[in-house]
Specification:
The protein has a five-stranded antiparallel beta sheet, with no helix packed on it. Strands 10-11-14-15-16 form a five-stranded antiparallel beta sheet, with no helix packed on it. Strands 3-2-7-8 form a four-stranded antiparallel beta sheet, with no helix packed on it. The protein has one helix and 21 strands. A hairpin with a 2-residue loop joins strand 7 and strand 8. By secondary structure, the chain is mainly beta. It is globular, with a radius of gyration of 19 Å. It is about 10% helix and about 40% strand.
């Protein structure tokens, strides 16, 4: 009994530290489209997520050091919908665990083009999903276009910008996803992102490889490792 008590008193602080001691989150960017034929669920026995059309999956591990049930999030991006779903485990795709403990396995090419395939098998439209390769901080100013909405940034975050009509040149539907340790939120837009009065992402010639997982730090513990690989167009 004495040995058991010692084990518990040693193990408990380690488990507690693994929940509250992590100073970053891992944002995993799955580099393949999900389709209505795929089955996605939270862990082997968790809830199923309905996939109705081509979908881009972002899985956020809020406590990367944890081995058991803990706070995670699923961001499901499609032409018709952007969903942020709470989870407790890792993703299971078609009966196989993915993304969890997969470090530097993928380098997502940004923008990621998500094709929309009609019933007759032809590609009708697409959306472009841009991942900004650097953390934003509370010192940054992010706006929708040069004179539109200002998005509040309280903590270091990852920006995902979605162009819902890539062929359009003027105001048209876009979306912003901001992922930080404290919150994940989606915002509607009508233009391209302006960061500190400079246009970013829209119309950039060279594509960028984003290492997955992208590590987003807490504001008090800035990350020093780059999340970016540049891929130059020929």
């Amino acid at each position: 009994m004495k040995k058991l008590c010692i084990f518990i008193f040693v193990l408990f602080p380690l488990l507690l530290y693994s929940q509250v001691g992590e100073q970053h989150i891992d944002v995993h960017l799955y580099p393949h489209s999900l389709t209505s034929q795929d089955s996605l669920q939270d862990g082997p026995f968790g809830k199923n997520f309905d996939i109705r059309e081509d979908t881009f999956l972002v899985w956020v591990d809020m406590f990367p050091g944890m081995f058991f049930a803990h706070k995670t999030a699923y961001i499901l991006i499609s032409k018709g919908d952007i969903r942020i779903e709470r989870g407790d485990w890792w993703p299971v795709l078609n009966g196989k665990m993915i993304l969890h403990n997969e470090h530097d396995k993928y380098a997502l090419v940004s923008p990621f083009e998500l094709p929309l395939i009609s019933a007759n098998g032809f590609i009708d439209e697409r959306i472009d999903i841009h991942v900004y390769p650097h953390e934003l901080t509370s010192q940054d100013q992010l706006t929708d276009g040069p004179a539109e909405q200002l998005f509040k940034i309280d903590d270091n975050c990852l920006l995902i910008w979605i162009d819902l009509l890539p062929a359009a040149y003027f105001a048209h539907p876009t979306a912003y996803i901001l992922i930080s340790k404290e919150s994940i939120r989606a915002e509607h837009g009508n233009w391209w992102p302006m960061l500190n009065s400079k246009r970013i992402l829209y119309g950039e010639r060279n594509k960028t490889g984003i290492i997955s997982p992208f590590k987003v730090s807490s504001a008090d513990f800035p990350m020093r490792k780059s999340n970016k690989r540049e891929i130059r167009s020929p």
